[in-house]
Input
Amino acid sequence: MAQRDFELLAPAGSFEILKAVIAAGADAVYVGGDMFGARAYANNFSREELLEALDYAHIRGKQIYLTVNTLLKNQEIKDRLYEYLLPFYERGLDAVIVQDLGALIFIHECFPDLPIHTSTQMTVTGVEGVRFLQQYGVTRVVMAREVSLEEMKTIHEETGMELEAFVHGALCYSYSGQCLFSSILGGRSGNRGRCAQPCRLSYEVLDEKKKPYHKESFVLSLKDVCGLEDLPGLKEAGVYSLKIEGRMKQIDYAAGVVSVYRRNIDRLEKGKGIDKGDVSQLLKLGNRCGFTNGYYHKHNGKDMVTFEKPSYEKEDTGIAIPAKSQVPVTGLAILRLDQPASLTLFLGEETVYAEAGEVSAAKNKPMTREDILTRLNKTGESDYYFESLELEMDDNIFIPNGALNQLRREAFEQLSQKLLEKFVRTNNRDPKEVFCPKNKDDAGREVTFSASTENRQLLPILCENDKIRRIYIDSNAYFRKSLSEEWKQDLRMVENAGKEAYFMLPHIFRKETSQYYSSLIEELRAFPPTGFVVRNYEELYWVRANFSDAKIITDYNLYTFNDLAQEEMKKQGVSLTTMPYELNKKEIENRHNTDTEMVIYGYYPLMISAQCVHKNTKGCDKTKTICYLKDRYQAQFPVKNHCNECYNVVYNSLPVCLLGNQEQLNKAGVKNFRLSFTTESKEEAKKILEAVDDFDREMIAYTNGHYKRGVE
Output
């Protein structure tokens, strides 16, 4: 795909900000409506405002993208999504930004002409993930913020997909879409647009023996990204759309940042370099302990972390906020005696003609050319202004000012109508034909148990347990240099115990990881697991492409919040999905659970991060270890550094334990249960295994997770 000029994509939390960023030079604007947006606390657009905004943008040759970038529950897709999107689709909405796979499928089927952009919440980090999404008509992929310029270039060259990348604004500590920190601690889910940002709080860091070694600081708080000086590199990487973060920011910030990037994009397109002095202007507009461009060039680093404070600083920049944006038109007015006044407008290839009033002979003072041109050029708050206006007129004529105003107004209205009519759509599809998941069929299914482990030392006790049928061995249980040989040993042990052995792929499957596992394909085929547990779209595509006979289980973070997503996974060859951690008892009961497994014991991962707490506080020694984050309430959160793929997992301070709820879950159609072992010792694991049949509520300190409360 040939590289086009950049699209500058700006945020807008209100109609006033939308007008300002368009006037400042944005090519497109992304906004949230009153449903399904990942900024639930922003001043989002009402239905009427969004319809007006679409017209406003389209008249000016700009585009509007609507965020539907949260996970959707069954009733939301079934009862609300279609009616919500229909008026915007009919009015010409330019694209929708989507996280949920079920919502993506629903929108693609119901609104076939609506371009779909996948949100950064989908955690797309590699070629395989893009190829997976291409089958659903996705027209653009918003890259995970952690993806480097080199990785983006590979993705673009190998898939031809249109890429969007964040160029300025806040960075999340976790891979977007992989964070449950706010959700589990306070019920405010980032996947539902309500993140409380616990990453911006201070934490004390403890070593493996829980001894403090790093005083309280903001170890999870990242600086803002600034990609101004990397615009040439982004272009070289094949990025088309430059996304500015900040739908909750004020008008001076949004318009100011847009104006700086617009100026420098224009400089690039004229063959000039970046004005590096503009970085200081951006700092004044707002920054969090300075800027970073780290992820473009490196995997992680302490220089990307604020440490001292996450406060937001800004100064008066003196950048003027543009008041409005009007479209330049060319006009020809003709005033002939005893004929209606006429006005012809020219805009690009469009031409409109209007008439109003009647020109009469002047009884007193005739109108001058200057009088008429002055009146017609009073465009005020309209969408247009005259770039040039010619006038042909007879001598000694008169026409009321009101008639001239009406003539101009009528011509402008006709022009708007002609510009907007091309955006009107009507070919939508009845949603009842799309949302028709199959009836539950739970009769005769037996209850089964599985166990996953990140510790090979637990395998003997898992193999000895009669309850456990499937064992998932996490990739982090191995070092790469010994993986092949140790896998063969473990596979034999599990198979000799009469159980199924699954290889659990990493949480993140970026370019280097993909290359490594692709080098092991023949060895894995020689000693094949029963199947794979996959945790992202890259792995789902990779396994299907290379192991056609293997069973596939998707983990909790390949979210199947709704039955459409669940059914689609089945079509993709998935034998079991894992119940999302944020659904409550009632929502589970209303979900199709026939092919679902549920984690009923385990420390939930709260964050998957490209950053490394151990590296950023002690230094990188390539040693798999555990440290702990202690918060203001003295809770201690285990952090494991997965050095093979270089990412951290921050776990909850307490395990979820639903062993006492098996009967209720059975009634809801859940027949497959998993015990997830991450940081447990052999003794702790034995205690949990013994409790499967005889659960003692006093056995351990635990939480019910979201089973009782859920998320909004």
In short: The chain has four domains: 7-171+223-301, 195-219+603-656, 327-421, 447-599+658-690. Residues 401-421 form the longest helix (21 residues). The two ends are 41 Å apart (CA to CA). Residues 327-421 form one domain.
